[in-house]
Amino acid sequence: MLRELIIKNFAIIDDMKVRFKSGLTILSGETGAGKSIIINAVNLVLGSRASAKMIRDGYETAELSAFFDVPSASKAAKRMTESGFSPEDGLMVRRVISSSDRHRVYVNDQRVTIQTLAAITFDLASISGQHAHQGLLKEESHLDALDLFGGLLPLVEKVSELYAKLTPLVQSLSSLETKKRNREKEMDLLRYQTAEIVDAGIQPCEDETLEKERIRLKHAQTLHQTVYGVIESLYGADGAILDRLGVLRKEMEKAASLDSALAAIPETLSNSFFELEEVVGSLRGYLGGLDTGSDQLEFVEARLDLINRLKRKYGGSLESLFAQHDAMNAKLLAIDKLDEEIETITEELKETHSQFAQLSRVLSEKRKKVAETFATSVEKELHSLKMTGTRFAVELSQPSASGTTSPWLCMDDCPMSAKGIDRASFRISPNVGESLKALSAIASGGELSRVVLALKAILAGNDMVSTIIFDEVDAGIGGAVADVVGKKLKVLSKKHQLICITHLPQIARFGSNHYFIRKQVQKGRTTTTIRPMNQEQRIAEIARMLGGEEITQTALDHARSLIVQ
Prior knowledge:
The chain is of the alpha+beta class. The protein is built from 19 helices and 17 strands. Among the domains are: 1-124 and 465-532, 3-Layer(aba) Sandwich (Rossmann fold); 187-336, no CATH class.
């Protein structure tokens, strides 16, 4: 139930706070006073789309807040719990609309997405205005109303669960069958690609090793000349370093025999001599293994070209190439298991399809029985709303499937959906002697408003929506019809919290609570205000609704008698 609504800097409203009670609450005021703005505000806290254009001129943001009591057994409470909120604390919704279009949504002071808000408030409140009337004309909503009336929603939920299980299985099977059709072609390609990698015989880091080898071979002549020159300088040439080092060592040995302080020097020179001899040996070995011919260089460059081509083809590096090879082998193994997977999914589909078909047939039979009772109940309500002689019927049908529909999503040549296989269409004949026609053929807004009210009345016991807001429920009606509508609203308010915007005194007199909405100019700016009315103020307001701006004593007496009645 909606307990409180706070509106700040929204349209022509500066700062408004409204506390709502149970029963029938009436909102009245002159045309253009801002009643529709309040409806828009409620729509926004229920999750409708916001726009920066809604912000009052001169402000950067608008803020809307609403507090709801949430019944513990309601779907809203369940969705709050699933989203991490405690329904015992109630539901506080706050929306901040920004001029930069960066709007914010809060639930119990925690920021959430607009999708989360819409999910939580989905069936918390209902606004029955022009939009709801137009929604009634859409046949998609007719089956929902029939199921709600007949208490068939638990069965519909089971059917929906089976359909939700069925559709991904159908998609998986279709995907597997497509893969199977392309299997040979895909397997040929995978076999060719894996063989191409295997035949190349590439080793880890081989590209780096070959690149080093290519550089060495490319500069072999320079390397040979440099190493050969070093060997000659150390050992082969006249006055070579090793020869000179040998002479120096002997001279230092003689000197050390004369002065023991030089004793370590000859040994150091000997070590250097032997180390340089090892260097010469290593360099000679290097020269022996240095290939200065062009054949090896051509081989290395050809090998590098092959490896680089495969790297470009399979990911840009050897690591990617080896990973691609492993992935292709895994695909080949998976393709080999396709037939087994197809068989498994097909069996699961058969079982799920059979369960869906069985439950859908049961649901269809129940709907046929409910449809008759539903139509009779609607006719009874319409007769009580001064639509005597009106005939109402529910037309159930099962359309044929198109050629593109999967056979797994059909039964008895009828397309399946989350609601079963039925389609429902409400048919009505408001005038005696006329044939039944679709609701969309109704020209009178007053008749359509009463059909909406009749449906709300007969669904009241089953509908989980705790708050219903009626806007334009008095469209196209007046006099005795308005009085009957008011009585019906009063009865309905015993099961739901009703908030009704009306211009008709015959309806307003039935309110348990009454608010007056007024547009006025304050400090050079137009603003809308709302205030609760006591008994005397109610009488004055109903008198205004009866007689216009000039309230006469006769109008006051008439208003008083209406309320007393």
